[in-house]
Structure formats: C-alpha cells, structure tokens
Amino acid sequence: MKYLSKVMDETIRMRGNPFTMLREVVKDTELNGYFIPKGWKVFMFQATVHMDPEIYSNPEEFIPSRWDDFIPKSGTFQPFGAGSRACPGSDLGKLEISIFLHYFLLNYKFEQLNPRSPLVHLPSSDPIDNCRAKITKLR
After folding, report:
1. Which helix (H) or strand (E) holds 97?
2. By residue range, what is the domain housing residue 62?
3. Is the pTM of this model over 0.90?
4. Does 49 score more than 70 pLDDT?
5. CATH number of the domain encompassing residue 35
6. Would you tell me how many other CB atoms lie within 10 Å of the CB of residue 118?
7. Residue 109 pairs with which residues in a beta bridge?
8. Whole-angstrom distance, CA of residue 12 vs CA of residue 124
9. 87 in a known ligand binding site
C-alpha cells in the first residue's frame, strides 16, 4: 500500500483538479517584480506548480518513486487546495481511489491502445487520444 500511495500522489500531481485556484490578495504584494494591489483576484494555475522542474525533477515523467523521501515544501503540492479552503473530503477521496485501484488491479487487465500517445500539459497533463484502452476482466 505504500507504493500505491506514491502512485496516487504522482497521478494527482500530474492530473490534479481543479486546475486553477482563485484567491483575493489580502495585502499589497510584490511578486517577481510585479505589484499586486490588495483586493485584486489572482489565479494560481496548479499545473504550473505541479510541473515546475525546480520543484519536481523531470516533471513530465510519471515517477512514483519521486515520493520515496520527498516532502514537498508548503505551497508546492496542493491537489486538494490549502488552508481554510482545503477540501474536507481529501482523505476520503484518497481512500476511495485506493479501494477502487485495489479491486481494479486484482480483477482487470488494462491495455493502453496507444502507449506512446503525445501529451498536452495545459490545462492539465492528458494524452491527446484520451488514453484509449482495452479493459478485460481476469478469471
């Protein structure tokens, strides 16, 4: 189950929802040479944070082992939001994903029809062909 947790975190990092978060600036702020006045609304595109090569090496590659000893800094992994707007169902969501994957992986075979399908990365990482696959029941 430890590896499954890493697979889930890597999947959520690469394909998280929502892909943006809207926030109101609570005090005048300067960021990278830009002045953002108090009261302005700003969009944070999660994909740009979750795919930042300064935070995640080889961000476009699916590497569950990156989570072996990696503890992301605050604000660099927010698949369920953060602070007072964090999703209250995040733990339940992860539990549901792990139960589904447990039964799916034990009872079905998944064969991607085009494993070399190119990816598009905005608004999130998705195969261009929508990951067409053949699923067959085992046993």
Report:
1. helix 90-107
2. 2-137
3. no
4. yes
5. 1.10.630.10
6. 8
7. 136
8. 10
9. yes
